[in-house]
Amino acid sequence: MAMEVTQVLLNAQSVDSTVRKHAEESLRQFQEQNLSVFLLSLSGELAGEDKPVDSRKLAGLILKNALDAKEQHRKYELVQRWLALDVGVKTQIKTCLLQILSSPVPDARSTASQVIAKIAAIELPQKQWPELIGSLLSNIHQVPAHVKQATLETLGYLCEEVSPDVVDQDQVNKILTAVIQGMSGNEGNNDVRLAATRALYNALGFAQANFSNDMERDYIMRVVCEATLSPDVKIRQAAFECLVSISSTYYEKLAPYIQDIFNITAKAVREDEEPVALQAIELWSSICDEEIDILEEYGGDFTADSDVPCYYFIKQALPALVPMLLETLLKQEEDQDLDEGAWNLAMAGGTCLGLVARTVGDDIVPLVMPFIEENITKSEWRQREAATYAFGSILEGPSPDKLTSIVNVALNFMLTALTNDPNSHVKDTTAWTLGRIFEFLHGSTVETPIITPANCPQIIRVLLQSMNDAPNVAEKACGALYFLAQGYEDIGSASPITPYFQEIVKSLLSVTDREDAGESRLRTAAYETLNEVVRCSTDETAAMVLQLVPIIMTKLHQTLEAEKLSSDEREKQNELQGLLCGCLQVITQKLGASEPTQYAFMQFADQIMNLFLRVFACRSATVHEEAMLAIGAVAHATGPDFAKYMPELYKYLEMGLQNFEEYQVCAVTVGVVGDICRALEDTVLPYCDGIMTQLLKDLSSNQLHRSVKPPIFSCFGDIALAIGENFEKYLMYAMPMLQSAAELSAHTSGADDEMIEYTNLLRNGILEAYSGIFQGFKNSPKTQLLIPYAPHILQFLDSIYMEKDMDDVVMKTAIGVLGDLADTLGSNAGSLIQLSLSCKEFLNECLSSDDHLIKESAEWAKMAISRAISV
Amino acid sequence: MAPHDLRRPFKRPAISDQQRRRDLSLLRQKQNRLDAQRRARCLASSVLSFQSEPKSPSQEQSHFELELELEIEPDAEEHQGPATTYDVRQASKLRGTEARRWFAKQLMLPEWMIDVPPNLNTDWYVFARPAGKRCFVVSSNGTTVSRLRNGILLHRFPSALPNGARINNVSRSGQSYCILDCIFHEPDQTYYVIDMVCWAGFSLYECTAEFRFFWLNSKLVEVGACDTPSTFHKYRFATVPVYNCDQEGLQTAYIGPVPYVKDGLLFYNKHAHYQTGNTPLALVWKDENCSEYVIDTDSKGQVPNQQQLVLELQDDGRLATSDDPSVIFGWLNEDFIQKTGLHAGNLLRFAVNDGGLSFVDGKLEKADLQYLGQSNRARAFADSYSKVMFQYIVRHSPLKIEHLFASIGPLGDGDIASHDVEMAA
C-alpha cells in the first residue's frame, strides 16, 4: 500500500492529464474511504526518507489542505473533522511530523513546518497539544543547524497561524528568546539567521508585553537593526520587513530608535540592492500611514481622544527624508508604465513622497520646489519625468493657498509638455499630474479657481488631443478629464464643460473603439470618464445624454452577437459588457433624476431591459452585478410600468439573492429589490413570497458576507411599505429575526471601532425594517397584529439610547421608529410609550440636535406621540 | 516564508468608478427610501375626507378640469354612496362650490358660550379674538392661498411658510405644506394665526390644543413668517397671546392691550383635538367691552328690533340648526313650502317674535318664529343652536364677565399650577 501511495502521488503530478486525473480520483476515493488511514499514510509518505522529494512534498501539501481552507464555511468543516479524529491517529501523525523537522531534505522539513502550524492553529485554541511549543524549543538547542532552521521556521508559521491569545506569556517569552538568539550575530549559520528573522516577522504580534518592557524592546530592536546590516541580502530584506511591521505595530515605541532607523534606511535606499531599498522606503511609507491615521483622528481638534499620540517623526525627518526620496525619482525604468506589475525605486519613492506630503502638508512644498525647478526643463527625460512626478506627488496634502500660485504657473507648462514632450513617459506623468491638479485643486470647494473660462477651452483641447496618444498616455488623459468634469459637479447650468460636451463624448467613444484600447486599461478609463461626464452634465446637454442611450445599447447588443468565443475572448466580452451596463446605469440614473428626461428615457426602457436580460443569460459575476445595478436605475425611472419586466426578471433576482460567494452581487440585488418595491408598490405582491423566502435564507446563512445583512433588513421595510398589511403573513418570520438581531446589536461593550460601525449599520437596517412595517400597516384594520411587538421594540430603542454609541444615522432612524410606532398603534401603545425612556430623554436629545434630519424625525415623533397619548 | 508584497497603488485614484457606481446607487436608494418614508409619514395622516353629494355628470367632468388626481375610495363602513377623499394639497387647488364646501367643513367652529363650562380655570385657554375674517391659510407647491370660511378665495401670495413661496425651496419635498387657522385683520394687513392644523407636512389634527399652541408658537417664528413683509413674504403672520383661563389670564385677555382690534374672547379646551365643524370644546363669548359686534346686525349694519336666525329646511319640512345632531326649531307645512317654491336644503331667515323661546328642563320647547325669506346666497350654513341661544340671552339676560370670573374663583386661588404655561409669543 505504501508503495502505491508514492506512485499515485507522483502520478498526480504527471504531465499526462489522463494519468493525473486518474491519480487525483484515487486520492479522493482513498480519502473518502478512510480518512484516518489516508492522513496517516500521507504523513508517513512525507516522513519517508527513502521516498522521492516530489511525492513527499505533495503528500504534505494534501495533508495541509485537509486541515484548512480559504472559504470560512469549508474551513470550519475541516477543523471539526480533524477534532473528531481518533486521538491515537492524531498523536501518531503529529509525532511523525515533528520528527521530519530533523530530515536532511529541506523541502520535507519546510512542508512539515507548515502542516504542524496548521494543526497547531486547530488544537491550541482547544487547549490540545500543550507540549508542542516545549518540544519545538528543545530542538533549538540541538546541534545540527538544519534542525534549528526548520524549528525556527515552524515557530514562524505557528505565529502566523495561531492567535496570540492562545499562547501564554511564558511561552511567548521563550519563543521570542529563541527567535532573537537565532537572529543575533552570534549565530554563525545564515540559514538559521534568515529563518529566525522571518519567524520574528510573524512573532511580532505576540510581543506586546515585550515591547512594553524597555530592556527587552531595546534588545529586540538592536538585534533587528544589526540584521539589516547582515552580509546576506535575504537577511537584510527580512530584517527590514520586521522594521516595517514594527513601525506600524509599535509606532508609539519608535521614538528612541528613529534616528538610527533613519540612518539605516537612508543607507539602504542609496546603496543597497533594490529589494532591500524598497523595504527601506516602505518603512517610511508605513510611518506616514500611521501618522495620517492619527492626525485624521485628531481631526484638527487636539483635545479629541486618540489612543496614540502623534510623534511627528515625518515632520522631524523631513529635511533629510525628502532629498532621499527625490533621488529615487531619477531611478526610473524604461517603459515602466507599460508593465502592470512594475514596482521599482522611483515608483516607491514617489508614492512615499505623496504620503509625506499628506502627512506634513505645506512644509513639503519649499523642499520639493527647487528639485522641480532644476529638473523640469532638462534635456534628459529622466529629469523631466522625475520633476513632474515630484510635483504630481505633492498635490494632495498642502493647502490650496500654498499650491495655487505654483499650479497657476505650472499649468501652461504641463499643457505644453503633454502636447510636445518627445518622451511618452514624461507625457504619461504629465497627464497624471494634470489629473491630480484637477482632483485636488479644482471644484466648488476651492476658493481660487485654477480653471477659468479663459484656460478651460485649451485644457479640454489638449486633453482630447492626448486621447490619440499612446494608450498609457491616453488613459491618464481620460483620468484628468474625469476629475475636470467632477470639479463641475455642482456648478449648475454654467458648467464650462457644456459647450464641449458633444466633442468630449465623441472623443471618448472613439477611444473606446481604438484597436489598442485593451492596453493600459484605456477602454475602462474612457468609459469611466464618459460616466463622470454624464453624471456631471447639466440640463442643457440632457438631449445629448439621451442620444447616448441608443449608441451604448448598440454596443451592448454587439457583444451579445459574438459566438463561439475562447475563454480569453469570453472574459473580454464580459468585461466590456460590464463597462457598457455600467455606462447605461449611469445614464439611466441621470435621466431618471428629473421628470422631463425620465419621460424621454421611457422610450428606450423595453429595449434596455431586453438587453440586460440577455446579458444575464451570458452569466458572469461582474456583468451580472453591473446589469443588476442598471436595472435598479431603470426601475426607479419607469415606476409602476416596471411591472411588465417582472415575469422575466424574477428568476435573475432570485439568482442574485442566492449568490453568497460574490456578496457584492447579492448586496446589489437586495438594493434593486428595494427599488422595485418603491416602483411597483403593491403590484410587487405576487413576487414577495419568493423574495422574502430568499431574504430570510440569506439572513440565516453563515456563508453570506455580514455586510449584506443590514441592507436585507432595510429591504424588509421597503417590502412592507410597498405591500402594506399584506406583509402580515411574513410577520411571523421577519419579526423574530429582527428581534434576535436587535438583541445582538443592542450592546456593543468591548467592541472595537469597526465592530461598532457594523453594529450601527445593523441597527439602522433593523430600524428601517420596523419603520417600513409600521408605516405599511398604518390605517389598516390589522394594526393590532403589531401590538405584541411594541414592548420589545421600545426596549430596543431604550437600550441603544442607553448604550450611547449610536451614530447620527441610527439616531435619526431610531427616533423615527418611535414616531412610526406611535403613529400606527396610536392609543394602543400610548401608555407603553410613556413608560419608555426613549419618549423622554432620547426624544429631547434628538429635538435639540444640530442635525436637521434628526430634528425633523424627532419633531415627527413628538407629534405622533402627542396624538397617541392624548386620545 | 517568502518576502511580502509591498506594492502600493501607482498613479491610480483611490476609488474605482465601479465602486462609485455602487456608492451612488446606494445613495439614490437611500434618498428614495427616505422620500417614501416621509411620504408615508406625512400623507396618510392628513388626508381629509368629505362626503360629497351625488354629482351630475357635468360636475364629474369639472374634476378633470381641475387637474386633480382624486383618490376615490369605496366607503366600506357606510353605504351612503361614494366618499371623496382629498389630500389637502389637492384640495387647495379646488375651485368654486367644491372648494367652498370643502373648506367650509374643515374649520373648527367654536360654539357660543351660553353657560360656563366646569374647570374653566384648569382645563381651558383664553385669548382675545382678533376682529376680522376667519380663514384657512394653505401653503403648498411654492404658493400660499387663504380662503374664507365659506371657501371663497381671499388672497394668493408668496409667504415664508414652508413651501409657501418659490424661493430656495428647490430641495424641499413637494409633500411639505401647511394649513393654518387664521383671522385676517384688515387694519394691519396681518394674518393672526389662532390654530395650526398642518405644519411642514405633519398633521396636527389629532394633537391636543396644548400641543398645537406650543408648536404654533415655536414654529411660526422659526421660519420667519412673523417677519415684516418682503417680496417673497407678502403678508405678516402673527401669533395671539394665549393664557391659562385663571383670574389673571382672563383679566389680561379681557382688558389687556393687544395690537389688534378685539372681537370677543375665545376659550379652547386644552385637551381637545382639532375637530372640524361645531365643537363645544372651543367657545366664543362677547360683550360690549371686548367686541363691537355683540348683537347680530342685518345686511345694512343695523341691529334689528327682533333677533333674527337662519335655519335649514329639511325634507320633512322641519327647520334645523347646523348642529350635528341638529336642533329643531319648528316646521313649515307642505302647502307653504309648495306655495313659496322652497325645497330641502334651503337656508331660511326667521325673526323671533314676542313669544320668544321657551324652555323646559333646559331644552327648547317652543319658538315663536316669523318667516322672513331665504338667506343670503353666500351663507353656507344655518345658525348653530348655541349662536341662536347666545343672541337670545344677550338680548334678555346676558352671560356677563362677572359670571366668568365668579366661576373661576377669587384671584390667586386654584391657579398654583398654571403659571408655567404662558403661551404668549
TrEMBL record, chain A:
UniProt keyword terms in alphabetical order: Cytoplasm, Protein transport, Repeat, Transport
SUPFAM superfamilies membership: ARM repeat (SSF48371)
Pfam families attached to this UniProt entry: HEAT_EZ (PF13513), IBN_N (PF03810), TPR_IMB1 (PF25574)
GO cellular component, one term: cytoplasm
Stretch forming the signal peptide: none
InterPro entries: ARM-like (IPR011989), ARM-type_fold (IPR016024), IMB1_TNPO1-like_TPR (IPR058584), Importin-beta_N (IPR001494), Importin_beta (IPR040122)
Gene3D superfamilies reported in the protein's UniProt record: Leucine-rich Repeat Variant (1.25.10.10)
Boundaries of every Importin N-terminal domain copy: 23-103
GO biological process: protein import into nucleus
PROSITE patterns: IMPORTIN_B_NT
Record family assignment: Belongs to the importin beta family. Importin beta-1 subfamily.
Protein name, as recorded: Importin subunit beta-1-like
TrEMBL record, chain B:
Keyword annotations: Cytoplasm, Nucleus, RNA-binding, Transport
Region described as Disordered: 1-22
Residues covered by the Snurportin-1 m3G cap-binding domain: 106-282
GO CC list: cytoplasm; nucleus
UniProt cross-references to InterPro entries, sorted A to Z: Snurportin-1, Snurportin1_C
GO molecular function, one term: RNA binding
Entry similarity comment: Belongs to the snurportin family.
Role description: Functions as an U snRNP-specific nuclear import adapter. Involved in the trimethylguanosine (m3G)-cap-dependent nuclear import of U snRNPs. Binds specifically to the terminal m3G-cap U snRNAs.
Pfam families: SPN1_m3Gcap_bd
UniProt protein name: Snurportin-1
Highest classification ranks of the organism: Eukaryota, Viridiplantae, Streptophyta, Embryophyta, Tracheophyta
